[in-house]
């Protein structure tokens, strides 16, 4: 079976790279032998030659020219991707937190990076499925255009209740956990090791309405009780400068930290940093800055271990960390208890993918 996988971003961001791999794994579980061609914003970051570029690849010397090229693609078309969509027997959107446009800046970013791909999916809606993501809100009238394209797609999955409510008028929308949450249900047989190392913080820039976040990070850094790690280095999502400032040194990648024999609690501002920690058998606290974080931790049975990144105090973080350290068995029991229904949900999704697409006689 030929599948076209849309909306990939950059393998430099380990969270987005993970989503691509999880989507491919789902497709192969549903249809062994499936051939997947991926469309990405930064195709050169992927080692796989089956990844094709959407729009402009690397930034040109002229930032203005790069932005114009990104905008022109959704307004016109991408001939290569159009041809791949025609040939594909199934079109799948990889999911992620990109379907939003509540401000002019967000709407412009969505249009440049994702609207053209959404339009292609809707044009072939009978054979298209969007995997779980957060969607909306959008400024009007752009929102009506986006919802119109979404309504033409066979099935649209969202990963939080706010997205589901925003699209309540569309009968093709269903609520499912994040792909990483679905994957975790397959790893419950792994017994997590006790976290005894120094806790590790994963920071990120919150340029939009940061609230007290930067004061929180500075205060936690000043305690000297934490190590630091970098989860994302992707274009437009580079955590290195902020982490260097807070840590005072070049922090390792989160993947390197998770590979260590001595496990440490991970306090991550990036949701997929927390997801990666849990998948490695490492307990985590999520400092959430948008609704997908609360949705994911609720699905995981860990809603007690998510804090608001914009308003949480250092004392709250330290108190919750100490509670986790003292109650690791309870933490993992809550996590494991949620896995049975998640496994059932994943199998329903696999069956849906198996039964979808163009059927040849």
Automatic annotation (TrEMBL):
Q: Where do the Polysaccharide pyruvyl transferase domain residues begin and end? A: 13-290
Tell me a Gene Ontology molecular-function term this record carries. Answer: transferase activity
Which chain positions lie within coiled-coil regions?
none
Asked if the record carries the keyword Disulfide bond, the reply is no
Keyword set, alphabetical order: Transferase
Keyword Transferase among record annotations: yes
Q: What is this protein called?
A: Polysaccharide pyruvyl transferase family protein
Query: Which species is this UniProt entry from?
Result: Kocuria rosea (Deinococcus erythromyxa)
Taxon lineage = Bacteria, Bacillati, Actinomycetota, Actinomycetes, Micrococcales
